[in-house]
Amino acid sequence: MVVRTFVLALALALAPTGTARAGCGVGTTIWEGYSGPIPWLLALTTDFFTFKGISTTFEILGCTPKDNIFRGLASAEVRHYASSNFDRLAEDMARGQGEHLEAFAHLLQINQEDRAAFTALTQENLDVLIAHDNVTVAEFLTTLFDLMAEHKTLSRYVQS
């Protein structure tokens, strides 16, 4: 009992004094507009004990793509694929076609009707995407996403 009281007192002491914005989800939505540590704690616990996973997965109740942990996992999968197949990807980008580039576009969730634009973008910007011999996968992906963000069709595939 003493430990619970201490944890509650500590949580209340460290809680923000502004509005009850604990993140996103049911609790944050219910307690929105209230200020102080008590509504913040109620919002936090309500979010935790309700459908936080559903809210973040479907990006509802104030949850954004940044709250969606599954998108982060997809990013890890993209990084892993690019790292494991970097040389083959470079070859496919140079040719403007190939199964590794197609699989990569699939991992990036690029719709079939936009694949030609994606392939053309990578082929036309190969010298920018692979600017030097020791380019890292992180540099490659950052450059690719920057190029996609500037592209009329492909910008919708880049998370902000």
Mean pLDDT over the residues: 78
What structural category do the secondary elements indicate?
Answer: mainly alpha
- Spell the H/E element sequence: HHHHHHHHHH
The amount of helix comes to 55-70%
Count of domain modules: 2
Total number of beta strands: 0
Distance between the termini: 45 Å
Envelope shape = elongated
Low-confidence stretches: 14-20
Quick synopsis:
With 160 residues, the chain is mainly alpha-helical.
Would you give an account of this structure?
With 160 residues, the protein is mainly alpha-helical. The chain folds into two domains: 2-66, no CATH class; 69-157. Helices cover 62% and strands 0% of the residues. The protein contains ten helices and no strands. It has helices at 2-14, 26-30, 37-49, 52-57, 69-84, 86-95, 99-107, 115-124, 126-129, 137-150. Helix 6 packs across helix 7 (99-107) and helix 6 packs across helix 8 (115-124). The chain is elongated, with a radius of gyration of 22 Å. Mean pLDDT is 78; it is low at 14-20.
Question: Main traits of this protein?
Answer:
160 residues, 2 domains, mainly alpha
Topology:
Blueprint: H1 2-14, H2 26-30, H3 37-49, H4 52-57, H5 69-84, H6 86-95, H7 99-107, H8 115-124, H9 126-129, H10 137-150
Helix pairs in contact: 6-7, 6-8
